[in-house]
Amino acid sequence: MSDNSTRKAAIAAAIILVVVAVVFLAMPGIVIALGDISPWLGYAATVIFILGFFAIFWLRSRYQQRKHSGS
Question: How confident is the model over 38-63, as pLDDT tens digits?
């Protein structure tokens, strides 16, 4: 792995983590607002946010595998 690709991967991971941190900081307000409408909407939003966090890194790893395998 070259120095440039390592740097790009680190920058991408940092950007993803910053965006996720901002979303998680806003999450309590969003969940409370949705919970006022219906508790199930609050639960659904929480599950979507948490699964989304893992989905981002899962999709990125699949992209990296496909990129490095030459497919």
Answer: 999 999 999 998 898 889 888 888 88
User: Around 25, how many Cα atoms within 13 Å sit in the side-chain half-sphere?
Assistant: 6
Contacts of 48 (CB under 8 A, 6+ apart): none
Q: Please state the domain extents for the chain.
A: 3-69
> CA 39 to CA 46: how far, in whole Å?
11
∠36-37-38 over CA atoms, to 5°? 95
Buried b (16+ CB within 10 A) or exposed e, 23-49: eeeeeeeebeebeeeeeeebeebbeeb
User: How far is the C-alpha of 69 from the C-alpha of 10, rounded, in Å?
Assistant: 20
* Residue 42 CA to its chain's centroid (Å): 18
